[in-house]
Design goal:
Blueprint lengths: L1 H6 L3 H18 L10
């Protein structure tokens, strides 16, 4: 919470930023690949 206060961003913006970066990192180097079965 103090991070959000010092940065002047909301809790929701901080959470979204973390998730967005995690998805971006995963798409560059995926741990699992989905194999089509159909």
């Amino acid at each position: 919470e103090s991070h959000c206060y010092h940065r002047g961003i909301s809790w929701y913006e901080a959470k979204t930023s973390i998730i967005r970066q995690a998805v971006r990192d995963y798409t560059v180097n995926p741990l699992y690949s989905l194999i089509p079965t159909a």
